[in-house]
Amino acid sequence: AEDAEVVGVWKLTSRVVQAADIKDLQAMGDAARESMPDGVGLLGAGFEEGKGTLVVVVGDSLRAKGVSAGDLVKAIGAATGIRGGGKPHLAQAGVAADALETTMTAAAEVVRGVLAGGGVSERDPREAGTAGGHAAWVATRLPPAPEALARCVADTLAAHAEWEALPLAEALVEAAGALCGDVLHGDPSSREGALKLLAADACVTYAFEAAADAPETLVARAKAAERQLARYGE
116 near 8, Cβ under 8 Å? Predict the structure, then answer.
């Protein structure tokens, strides 16, 4: 899009438009996404009875880096109070028409934060061998994890540089297993033990999210994860 703002190496466009209905607004969003594969589009429109809708679209190149329109809508909702959802390429949320401008401004700030400081890199961090990529991918998850939990996951990944050679999903399962092993060989009732259990659970959730682009492999991955995690209980 010609009016797009450049954020790092990515693009962001945000504008209020005139749309006949929600389907018309979604079609505009799709057109924006197709014209801007390396960016995020925010389109808002007001309708009858004081209602409005915000549509968020994410281009193909940026989506390949782990950025999802559905996740962005959740993050925007956490900042503004609006509620919505959708798919990785297009998501939407309802908003009062008289609050549309304010919401669009806040939404743009959330997206800028993700693009500029959320760990989105020029290479897909799900690829094995991406230096620091596994932790960077985790840092982009939305809504963000509580600080202590996020730090626990990041510290566990950082302590095992050899995992960077693994695909992201496998590295996260290894991290979950290591955390469970620490709990089993420590004090499960301690505050640190509880945090590590929560971090292990988060790693497993992230692992399946990372593998979601190949859903046909999820059953096999689940069985492999069970075997890997069982090793740490021995």
Answer: yes
Contact indicator for 58, 74 with CB cutoff of 8 Å: no
Question: How many H helices and E strands in the chain?
Answer: 9, 6
Distance CA 50, CA 97 (A): 5
Kindly report whether the global pTM for this prediction surpasses the value 0.90: no
Cα–Cα distance, 202 to 85 (Å, whole number): 21
Distance in angstroms (rounded) separating the CA atoms of residues 44 and 95: 9
Q: How far is CA 127 from the centre of its chain?
A: 16
The tokens describing 61, both together, are 């190149």
Asked if residue 159 lies in contact with residue 137, where contact means CB atoms within 8 angstroms, the answer is no
Predicted confidence (pLDDT) per residue in 199-224, tens digit: 999 998 888 888 776 666 667 767 77
The alpha carbon of residue 65 and the mean position of all alpha carbons in its chain are separated, in whole angstroms, by: 9
